[in-house]
Give the backbone structure.
Amino acid sequence: MSELVRFGVSLEKTLLDRFDVLIRAKQYTNRSEALRDLIRKELVQQEWQSGSDVVGTITLIYDHHKRDVLIRVMDTQHDFQEAIISTQHIHLDHHNCLEIVAARGNAEEVQRLADALRSIKGVRHATLSMSSTGREIG
Ligand code: NI
């Protein structure tokens, strides 16, 4: 773990009051923890914008009865097999499937994978959770 450094921050009182309300609502135990998370959030965003090596999870909801949707989801995953590190398929009910795809690689490639899966006809909902390999965020 890196050395801990203390530093002073000057803020307008109204801004700090709002920050304190926010961190209580988010159940942080102190300002330092909240500030660390905010900084990491920015750093992760920067990783995605600069095309770094990133980690992301794509969550899909689709009806497996829809024509060709399973084949298309599978074909797309084979096209991006170098970026996909794991997939999990959950049968939600008679129609709906939940699929979680964990991906790692170049940010643009992971984004392309998410876009390709989202645009498949029959995929009802798709989200990309953008995260980090953890190496660049302290
Ligand atoms: Ni299923």
Q: What stands out?
A: The longest strand covers residues 53-63.
